[in-house]
Structures are given as structure tokens and as C-alpha cells.
Specification:
This protein is α/β, with parallel strands linked by helices and 314 residues long. Helices cover 41% and strands 18% of the residues. It contains ten helices and 13 strands.
Length: 314
């Protein structure tokens, strides 16, 4: 890759990906919303001010940049918020993806487009259906999950209809430093850091601790994304995951084990989801066989790095 465009470049995954590609001397362009936070901006990225729901702004940027690859990472990605703001979630995640694909179709048809899907597309997984393969039925249980199914299908349709080289990745949970504080691992880590500094009472507020998730470090995930656009077949979905699940209770226990302060755990009704997917455990044999990728960073290290990230900022 010599020239890429990243949507969501200032956010969690996008900022890590930008840092990696800049180090590899790739010409990195990023789409930045006017209201985006600036904390993780890489000064070597060429920024273009636009919003994925702005058709004119997005298509003009694609026309100007003519990237080899677009990593489409911009999304409303917080599942609980999708129940509170379903219209905004569907608009950003579906229309935003459509605008990217239309921009490529009209102005840069040789560009490869990675469409970042999610394990939330699988939703309700029945007994006997794990580990989850790409052919598993899609039964999303949130507006966010529905939006990602639609984006996934748009990517398939644009490949079949227009031969746009879309690469569909279905990432299971990925965590690490810079993760937004609303997400479970980062929420726990930030609260522990606040308690250690005496800025919060020694009580950590939690939602349900029963769900199980398949976690991968974000730094492993961006390696997978780069391999995907180089090697994967267009128009096909690929799971990316560790193949191991942890209950949220286990996640909390690991993080609490890194602190020497006694901390009480308290359930908070406001943190409970309207409906929750009980188990997401992935099978990424298809992706591993094709690319040779494997997750390398232990989950315990991911959690410690996340906690230290918050310790440095509080």
C-alpha cells in the first residue's frame, strides 16, 4: 500500500491504524469530522474535513485522494447508544457506508474498500452454533447489529453489481489503549484508575457480568485489517477473532487483580442493555488459513495496557 484513506481516523481503531501505516511510510489520508476529538491525531496524516453522512464531502474527498485502499472504520459503534439513537446509528452506519461505496464507484473504481463489520451481526446464537463461522445465520439483537448487517450486505452487493473490490471483516470485540470510556473494558479500567487516585469512591459500577465475549487486542486487529485488504477475496465476509471467550465477570476480576486497593462492585441499572447477546465466540479459520494471521498479544496484557492508559491520564 502506498496511499490509503481512513474513515474514523481519530477514533480508537483508526488512530492505531494510522500510526502503524505512517511508520511504514504509507501516505495516509484521514476523514475527520469538525467535532472530532484531537487527542490521537497523528501529525503526518493528511486530514480531510467531512462526515460520512455528507455525500458531497465524502465523494469529493475520494475523487481528490484516489486512494489504493479505503479502511472504512467510521461508525456509531456503541451498542447501548443504538437503542437510544437508532435513527442516527442507522444513518451513520448504513448511509455512511453507502456514500463511501458510491464515491468509489463513481470516482475511484480501482480502490479496495474494507468494510468493518461486527460480531454483533450474528446476534442471538443458539446452542450448538459456536464457535461462530461466517455462514451462521445473522440474528442481530440491536439497531447497531442491524446497521452492520446492512453495511455488510451493501458491500457484497457493490461487488456483485459493480465489481467494487470490497473486503468484509466481521471483527469480534477488540480492546486496548484509547478505547472509549463507555465500552466495558475501558469503563472498568477508568473507574479503577479514578479510585486509585482518590477521585472516586472505592465502588466500581457495572452492568451485567454474565455475557461472554471473544476479545482481541486492537494492535492485532489492525494487522488483520491490513492483511485482509491485501489477501482476502472481494465480496466475502471474514471473521477476525481470538477464538477464546471471557465472561465479563472474568474481565472485571483480571482488572481488579491489577490494583492493590480494595474495590467494591455494585450493579448499576442504567448500565443494563435492553437485550444482550449472551455469547459471542468466533471461528476465524477461514481468515487464518488464507492470511496466516493469529492474535499475539495476551488478553491480560491488553487489559493491563488499558488500565495503564487511564492511569497516565488521571
Amino acid at each position: 500500500m502506498k496511499k490509503v484513506l481512513i474513515t474514523g481516523v481519530t477514533a480508537f481503531v483508526g488512530s492505531h491504524l494510522a500510526d502503524k501505516l505512517v511508520k511504514e511510510e504509507v501516505e495516509v489520508h484521514g476523514i475527520k469530522r469538525p467535532r472530532s476529538r484531537d487527542e490521537f491525531i497523528n501529525p503526518k496524516v493528511i486530514y480531510h474535513e467531512a462526515d460520512v453522512i455528507d455525500y458531497v464531502g465524502i465523494t469529493e474527498t475520494i475523487k481528490t485522494v484516489q486512494p489504493e485502499v479505503i479502511f472504512h472504520l467510521a461508525a456509531q459503534s456503541f451498542v447501548p447508544l443504538s437503542w437510544q439513537a437508532p435513527t442516527a446509528t442507522l444513518n451513520t452506519n448504513i448511509i455512511g457506508t453507502l456514500n463511501i461505496l458510491e464515491g468509489v464507484r463513481k470516482f475511484s473504481p480501482e480502490t479496495k474498500v474494507q468494510v468493518a463489520g461486527s460480531s454483533e451481526e450474528y446476534g442471538m446464537v443458539y446452542p450448538g452454533e459456536t464457535p461462530i463461522k461466517e455462514g451462521n445465520p445473522l440474528r442481530p439483537m440491536s439497531p447497531y447489529g442491524v446497521s452492520k448487517v446492512a453495511a455488510d450486505l451493501l458491500a457484497q452487493q457493490y461487488y456483485m453489481s459493480y465489481s467494487i473490490h470490497t473486503v468484509i471483516t466481521r471483527a469480534f470485540n477488540h480492546e486496548g489503549p484509547r478505547r472509549g470510556e463507555n465500552f466495558v473494558t475501558s469503563s472498568f479500567a477508568k473507574q479503577i484508575a479514578l479510585i486509585e487516585k482518590g477521585k472516586q469512591e472505592p465502588t466500581i459500577k457495572v452492568g451485567s457480568l454474565e455475557a461472554s465475549r471473544d476479545f482481541t487486542d486492537v494492535r492485532d486487529m489492525i494487522e488483520a485489517y491490513c492483511l485482509a485488504v491485501r489477501i482476502c477475496s472481494p465480496g466475502e465476509p471474514y471473521n477476525i477473532c481470538s477464538g477464546k471467550s471471557y465472561k465479563i465477570q472474568e474481565v472485571l476480576d483480571i482488572l481488579l487483580g491489577y490494583s492493590k486497593i480494595w474495590i467494591r462492585v455494585e450493579k448499576d441499572a442504567s448500565r443494563m442493555r435492553v437485550s444482550d447477546v449472551p455469547l459471542l465466540l468466533g471461528d476465524c479459520t477461514k481468515f487464518k488459513k488464507l492470511t496466516g494471521w493469529t492474535s499475539k498479544i495476551p488478553f491480560e496484557q491488553t487489559l493491563l495496557d488499558t488500565l495503564n492508559f487511564w492511569r497516565e491520564r488521571i
